[in-house]
Amino acid sequence: xxxxxxxxxxxxxxxxxxxxxxxxxxxxxxxxxxxxxxxxxxxxxxxxxxxxxxxxxxxxxxxxxxxxxxxxxxxxxxxxxxxxxxxxxxxxxxxxxxxxxxxxxxxxxxxxxxxxxxxxxxxxxxxxxxxxxxxxxxxxxxxxxxxxxxxxxxxxxxxxxxxxxxxxxxxxxxxxxxxxxxxxxxxxxxxxxxxxxxxxxxxxxxxxxxxxxxxxxxxxxxxxxxxxxxxxxxxxxxxxxxxxxxxxxxxxxxxxxxxxxxxxxxxxxxxxxxxxxxxxxxxxxxxxxxxxxxxxxxxxxxxxxxxxxxxxxxxxxxxxxxxxxxxxxxxxxxxxxxxxxxxxxxxxxxxxxxxxxxxxxxxxxxxxxxxxxxxxxxxxxxxxxxxxxxxxxxxxxxxxxxxxxxxxxxxxxxxxxxxxxxxxxxxxxxxxxxxxxxxxxxxxxxxxxxxx
Amino acid sequence: xxxxxxxxxxxxxxxxxxxxxxxxxxxxxxxxxxxxxxxxxxxxxxxxxxxxxxxxxxxxxxxxxxxxxxxxxxxxxxxxxxxxxxxxxxxxxxxxxxxxxxxxxxxxxxxxxxxxxxxxxxxxxxxxxxxxxxxxxxxxxxxxxxxxxxxxxxxxxxxxxxxxxxxxxxxxxxxxxxxxxxxxxxxxxxxxxxxxxxxxxxxxxxxxxxxxxxxxxxxxxxxxxxxxxxxxxxxxxxxxxxxxxxxxxxxxxxxxxxxxxxxxxxxxxxxxxxxxxxxxxxxxxxxxxxxxxxxxxxxxxxxxxxxxxxxxxxxxxxxxxxxxxxxxxxxxxxxxxxxxxxxxxxxxxxxxxxxxxxxxxxxxxxxxxxxxxxxxxxxxxxxxxxxxxxxxxxxxxxxxxxxxxxxxxxxxxxxxxxxxxxxxxxxxxxxxxxxxxxxxxxxxxxxxxxxxxxxxxxxxxxxxxxxxxxxxxxxxxxxxxxxxxxxxxxxxxxxxxxxxxxxxxxxxxxxxxxxxxxxxxxxxxxxxxxxxxxxxxxxxxxxxxxxxxxxxxxxxxxxxxxxxxxxxxxxxxxxxxxxxxxxxxxxxxxxxxxxxxxxxxxxxxxxxxxxxxxxxxxxxxxxxxxx
Lengths: 452, 627
Description:
Mean pLDDT of chain B: 92
Shape of chain B: globular
Strand order of the largest sheet of chain A: 3-4-5-6-2-1-7
Largest interface: A-B, 39 and 52 residues
Distance between the termini of chain B: 52 Å
Order of helices and strands of chain A: EEHEEEEHEHHHHHEHEEEHEHEEHHHH
CATH architecture of the domain at 218-356 in chain A: 3-Layer(aba) Sandwich
CATH topology of the domain at 218-356 in chain A: Rossmann fold
Radius of gyration of chain A: 29 Å
Largest sheet of chain B: 7 strands, mixed
Strand content of chain B: 15-25%
Helix content of chain A: 40-55%
Helix content of chain B: 25-40%
Distance between the termini of chain A: 46 Å
CATH class of the domain at 208-344 in chain B: Mainly Beta
Number of helices of chain B: 21
Structural class of chain A: alpha/beta
Mean pLDDT of chain A: 77
Number of strands of chain B: 22
Structural class of chain B: alpha+beta
Oligomer: heterodimer
CATH topology of the domain at 208-344 in chain B: Elongation Factor Tu (Ef-tu), domain 3
C-alpha cells in the first residue's frame, strides 16, 4: 500500500502546521526530510515520541520543528505514521509537503487517513462517520456527539442490539440444527417479549435522529401565514438574540435560497418561501402549490396567525394545507399580536403559543416548544444519537425487520421469524460496516451445548 | 516407494477411497462414460458407517435430497435399507423439515458393493494407494503398495479418516483407519511432496453395545413416522425398528470428571482439531458443566445384528472408564460392550487449496472430496464426491464445470464455505449456514437441481419425465388456486371463525385464503366441490409455495442481489499486491483463495466491506483498460 501525506491543519496562517505521513514508508520518508538535532536516526526513536530537529529539502534546511512517530498498529490509521510539525505559513508548509512527496509519499485523498483507519480495522463505519462529524461540526453539541461516537459509543450500542438479535437467531437455529440435544426451545412468548424490547430500543434510538439532524444538518423550518400576521417578527425572535448565520446554500432541487441559522443547539434551515421577507406572501405570490410544497418539505412549520382578529378563509386554507400535508404534529401555531387582545380561542391542532413580537410575549414558550419537538428530550447519552441519514435509514430498516419478525411469530413458526431477525442483524451490521451470518453461527457455539 | 514398479491398467478417473464420497465420485464418473477405478483399503467395508447408522438429519437431509436430484446414489441406497424414517423439525417451518433415516449398516454396504460391481466402466480394486504421480503440475496416476502404477487423467482423493489415521482409546494409541481397518500411511508424504498442504483433524465414535443387555422398558422409545417419507421415491416403506432415548446423569458426569486426566483429549496426546458439532462426551461435560444431563440415542445397527450404537457418547476415555460411565445410565446398568468407543486422528487438506469444482488450484486433475476436504458427515462427503466425480468427468470431456451456487443448494453452500473460508475443524452442514433456507427445501430439490443432473447425464429419461409430470400438476394447481374464488358462504365463515379469524362478507381467492397462517390446504379443499386428484406430496408443496410466497419472494430478491455480486467475475490473472489502497493482509488472503467473483471475495473471513469497495473500484478500472 502506498504511503500518503497531507497537510492536516487548516491551510493558511497559523503558529504551527502539521503534515501527516502514513504508510509502510512513513518513517523512511520522514527521515529524508528531517534531521533530528540529537543526531539519533528516526529509525531508533521509540514510538509516541516527539523529536526536535530541522526540515530540509534538496535546497537545504528551511525550517525547524518536531516530528512525532506512531508505529503500526498503534496509530490513528493503524499504519506507521509520522507527524511533522513545522511553522504554519503557507510557503513553509507547502515546501515541507513537497519535500515529503519528493521523498516518495503520494498525496493523500480526502478522508484517506480515516478510511485507512477503517480499512485497517481501527474504527467502525459509524466511528469513521463521527470523525467526519467532528471536522464538520457547526456547534458544540454536534462536536460533543461526534467526539463520543468517534470513540465508539454508538458502535457499542449497535453491537449490543445486534448481539441480542444474534442470540435470538442462534437460539432458534440451535434448536433446529440439534433436534436430539434436548436444548430448551425458546418459547414464542419469550421470543416475542425479547423482540419487543429490542424493537423499543431501536425505536428509541431511531427517534434520536430528529435531534441528531437538528444539531448537524438543521431542521427544515418554514414560516407560513397570511400577510401582516407578523412572520418577520417571529423570525426575529428566532434569530434575534443569536444571529449566527452559518451558511448560505443555494438550493439544488428548487431555485430557493436557504438560510441556515442557529438557535441554541439547534440549526434551522429557513427557506425563502417561509417568509423571510415580510413582503413575500406565500399564498399569493407563489401560489397554493408552492406553499403546499414548502409545508410538505418542512420538518417544522411555524404557522403565524393574527390572534387579535377572527380567523378568515385565508387562515383556514393554511390550516387545511398543513393538515393535508400531515404536518399537524410538527406545527407550532403562533397567535401573534396577543397584546392587541386575543380573540382567537384555540386552533384545531398543533402546539399553540400566545405570542407578541411587539411586547415580547411568548419567546420563551416558542423556544421551549421547539425544544420539546427537537430537543435532547429522551436522549439518554449524547454518544447514542443517530446523526447521519445513512445510519437512520439502516436503523429504520432494522426496525421494520424486527416488526416483521413479530408479525411472523403470529401464525408462522420461529424459524420464519428468524429470517426477519437475520435481516435486522444485517441492517445493523450495515450501519456499522459489519456483516451478519457468521455472527449467528459463532453465537450458536458460545451459548449452547450441542452434540452429534 | 517400491523398488520395482510395474505398469498396471489405465483409467480416465481414479478414486482413492470407497467411502461415501468415493462411491458417489466413482459412480458419477462411470455413469458419465469415463473409465473409472475405485480403490479401497478393504473391500469388506465399502460405504461403511463407523460413526452412526443413519443418513440425513438437519441440513443433511436436504443434502441427500439434492444428491438424489442430481442423480447420486445415497438417497436410493438409504431408502432400500431403511430401518426407520423420521422427519425432524416438523413443528417448525418447511425450510427446516429434515429427513433422517436409520439404515441397516451391513445391507447398505452390500447394496453399494453390488451396485459398483454391476456398473459398467467401473473397476473396484483393493489396494493401498501410496502415492500420486504429478508431471507439469498435472496428475498422471497413482502408485499402490504392491508396486503398481495406474495411470489416469484425474485422481479424486477421498481418503476419509484413513489417511495417516491413528486410533486412540485412553492411554492406548495405534495406526488404524475407522473400525480397525489398516491406515493409509504413505499417501500423506506423496501429497505433501506434490505441494498439498495437509492438516490434522480428529473425530470420535461411540461404544457399541449388545441389544439384549439394554433394558428398553426403562428408555423412551422413538419409533419412525406413521407415514414414513423416503429420500428418492414417493412409495413409502414400513418402519422396521425403533430407536431409544437415554440420558446421562450426575453420576455419569462424576465418573467422567474424575477420570479426565486419563483422556488423551485433555492430556494432550490428541493433536488434531475435533468438531464442535459432535464433541465427545468428556468434551461436553467439561464445556457445558452446568448441564445436568445429555441426551443419548440408542440406535440399531441392522436387522441381522444385536449391535447398537450409543449416539452422543463418543469418547476417547479408557475402556474401563467408558464402561463405568455408561453403566450409570438408566436402562444401561448391565450393558455389555461389544466395541469400545475410540477417537481417530487423520490427515486432511486445507480446502482453500481447492476450486469450487473441488479440483486443486495448483495441480491439474487432482480433486479432493469428503473428510479429506475437512468436512464431517456421510452426507457432506457424498455431496462432494458427486461434485468432484461430475467435474472430473466434465473436464476430461472438455465441458463447462458444474458449480452449484449457495443460492440454489446446500451442496453449493457447503463447498463454497469450504473453499472460500476454509475450516479449522471438521465442517458440518447446518440449516443456519444457508442464507436462503426457505428456497433450499427438501421438497423442491428436484426443481433446483434435476436439470443440472440431467445435463451431466446422471438423470435418466424416466426419472426426468416423472419429475416433469409432477411439476405440471403442481404448477397448474397453484395457478388454479390463484385464479379461483371461494364465494362468501356460511361454511367459509364457519371455517374462518373456527380459527379465530374475522368473518368476511365477500368472496376470496383460494390462494389468498391459504396465505392466512392457520388455514391449511385441506381446509380449502373441504370447501370445494371439484378438487382435482393430486398426490399428497404435491399438495404439501402447493401449500408451501402459496403460504410462504411473501417470504419466498423476499429471499428471491436477496438471491438477485447475491447473483449480481457473483456475476462480477474477478480476472484469474489479477495481481492483488499491486491494487492501490488494498491492505497487505487482505491482498495476501485474496491471493491465497483467488476468489472467482466479488461475491466469493466478500465471504472470505477477514475481508472487510472496505476491501470489497476497493476491489470494486479496481475492477471497474480494469474493465475500462480491457477493450
